[in-house]
Amino acid sequence: MPVRLGPQFLNIPMRLNRFLAAAGVGSRRHCDELIATGRVTINGKPCTDFSTQPTARDHVKVNGKMVHADLPLTVVLHKPAGFVSTKSDPHARDTIFDLLPAKFPRLFNVGRLDAQSEGLLILTNDGELAQRLTHPRYKIDKEYELTLDRQWDPALTPKLLRGIFLDGQRAQIVRLHSITSTRLRVVLRQGINRQIRRMFEAVGYQVKHLVRIRIGKLRLGDLPRGHWRPLTKRELESLSVEARVLTRRTASPARTAAEDSRHYTGPRK
């Protein structure tokens, strides 16, 4: 791949509780408790300072046991058609992780694209960011460009904007505009399996080509198919801020515990 990770992407400071959480010790709240009770040591000395940022040279222990955390890393990938959005595939198909360096820390994809679709994917080891970007509660824009099998009838646009029932819920397109008679751009905020393809099938069309070009303010740009690049510090900060804003806007006291705990891997479009 043409991009190498330099120090500006790898030497990212982490507060102690985030470091412990990244090492798999527990939630940040649990890690705060460990720090407060003096059960965390750095280089042999108890550390109760929550603002401490361990470096790669520090020896961090919890209850006397050494812990290691992967360096935080978030990259964007231009997924080509023909690759599946999983770690491994029972049918031995190529996966998106085959496109990444073998020495990368363990990453997981934020949302999915089906095997036939291509475009922008975010991969990260920041679980909190991934949760905010993929959970149904956080309605972040995802923009797609698609090609249909025949000329689009604009009279059908209101029907897709109002919504079509899929899997027992109303699937909606937030925005739709034509580029040509057969090429459209659509924006989603939901995460229903193969939503775009199924919605257009419901009104009599086949999607011949589908590309995700934007997630929030992050754009695919001119990144070639099959290539990846790390997010810049500015992009990462912008994405994190956007996710936090969406979290505040969508938080509700009526939210159920079941909704919060439900496992969600994001949509395949």
Notes on the structure:
The model is unreliable at 1-11 and 252-265 (pLDDT under 50). The strands form 3 sheets. Strands 5, 6, 7, 8, 11, 12, 13, 14 and 15 form a 9-stranded mixed sheet that branches. A 4-stranded antiparallel sheet has the order 2-1-3-4, with no helix packed on it. The radius of gyration is 21 Å and the shape is elongated. A hairpin with a 2-residue loop joins strand 9 and strand 10 (169-171). It has 2 domains: 7-66, RNA-binding S4 domain (Structural Genomics Hypothetical 15.5 Kd Protein In mrcA-pckA Intergenic Region, Chain A, Roll), CATH 3.10.290; 74-261, Pseudouridine synthase (2-Layer Sandwich). The chain has 269 residues and is α+β, with helices and mostly antiparallel strands. It contains 8 helices and 15 strands.
Provide the domain count. 2
End-to-end separation in angstroms reads 26 Å
Q: Give the overall shape.
A: elongated
CATH-derived architecture of the largest domain:
2-Layer Sandwich
Give the class from helix and strand content and strand pairing: alpha+beta
Mean pLDDT: 84
